[in-house]
Amino acid sequence: MDLEKSREQRSGEGCLVVAVRMPVRIVALVLVVPVRMVWDALVVVGRFLGDTVFRPLGRALAWVGRAVFVWPFVALWRWVLVPLGAALRWLGAVLLVVPAGWLYRAVLTPLGHALSWLGRMLLVVPAVWLYRWLLTPVGHALAWCGRGLCALASLLVAGIATALYWTVRVLVVWPASVVWRWVLAPVGRVLAVVAREVGAALGHAWRVAGYVSLAVGGALAAFFRWTVVEPARRVYRSVLTPVGHVVRDRVLRPVMEAARSVGRVTRDALHSVRVTVRQVRQDVRRALLGDPKTPGEQGDQSVKRTVVPSDGQDDRILLTKR
């Protein structure tokens, strides 16, 4: 079945594909077969050398390394360094730790207690007595004096502030209020009335000027309309519009129709040329590469198995596509 399929597929391919495929396969076969044979020979030789030479040699080297390096260091550590370390630890404990502990318990501890009692009697007790019977009364006296001085200073500041307040009020505030009430306020009211009247007059004049400007503008607009716009509109309506219609109907419309016809003919010619070129390209491709089959056609094809009786003992199996 596979042979029949491959034969049918090869029969559907182009002659160019078959002509290129065979030389390429032959060259690849000629180049790859020697390389593969050399690779297989190297693999066999490598396995033989590994089993007969490299693996025993590695085991011998590992045993020699353990005998030369590992076992001497293990013996040195176990029978020399460990006992020597234990002896040094015992000597250190006898010569250093025990005397140091006795010195701390018998000498340094009593001496530290004695120094602590001397320091308390010579420094702490006198300092407490001095703070309690001398510094505390002096501090209370100084605090009382400070409170009295603060009260006196506050009284002095309050008196000075009061005197300055009444002085400023009598010399500055009262005269300023009198001047404001009896001089500046009446003058300000008069000036405000004058400014208000001047503003009202200016506003009235501005509105009157607006009316005058509107009237003058209307007159100028009417003059321009009757002298320029109306004649131009009449000329456009009675002269230019009929002329434009004549030009559109007699000149522009035939020209547009002719251009549209030429464009239609050109598009039809180009379409015919494209169709012809596509057909020629498909014919050339079919001649060189064979009849292409679309995926839908290939998917819809089904294989039918037909048994054809022959004169011999075996039957031939033919594959037909539906």
From TrEMBL:
Query: Which stretches are transmembrane?
Result: 26-49, 61-81, 87-105, 117-135, 141-166, 208-228
Q: Where is the composition biased (Basic and acidic residues)?
A: 313-322
Which residue ranges does the record annotate as region Disordered?
Answer: 289-322
Signal peptide boundaries: none
Coiled-coil regions in this chain? none
Q: Which UniProt keywords apply?
A: Membrane, Transmembrane, Transmembrane helix
Q: What is this protein called?
A: Integral membrane protein
Species in which this protein is naturally found: Streptomyces cellulosae
